[in-house]
Amino acid sequence: MPFLSATPTAADVAELFLGAPGVELDEANPENRFAPSWIETTAALADDAVAGGAKALVISATGKFFTNGLDTDHIAAHADELPAYLDAVHALYAKVLTLPVPTVAAVNGHAFGAGAMLALCADHIVMRTDRGYWSLPEASLNMPFTRGMAALLRTRLADRTATEAMLTSRRYGGDEAVAAGIVDEAVAVDELLNRAVEVATARTPLAGPTQTLIKRGLRQALLADLAVPTPPALL
Asked: What are residue 14's DSSP bridge partners?
């Protein structure tokens, strides 16, 4: 399950790990998929970081996956709950997009589908160069994007990149993701978390309610789309 800690090198920066930190796999959720409890815990920990006085938040994970996206096993077992489940995903995106502190995603491994979109909710994205892909596999899986997800991708990506990523399910490595404008920078894995903390630390003086006001103004249309309930007829 997700885990919150203070960075040992920057007291004002909190680190939110999307799975158990310091181990290759979390036995309960080895791919950091969006299980309902995982969504709830991740959202609560983001709030806890702010309430605890953090002035910046780094979101990362340990091992092969940053997050592999939607929990397909849960969806298959609870098909009638799909609209509410997707609304919870949208709410998590909206929360990260509007936190009153600077946010940095440190993409340590594969970021697929809903997980790739979660990374885009951060203000700044650092990805490792040697392993892991950012990808939207929905087209190859015959899955549509929700209105909110499509809006997120249109907002955070250039049109050519969004078109290619959404229609072809291309997998982007770190350097390719930088070239496509998906992430801001790519570094060696040994530098990943330190670089994310460095960026976050530099932005800590900006923390405060004004950050949320600016983010809401910047992403007003996107937030409106994320707030629209998912129709039962989506699939």
From this structure: 6, 57
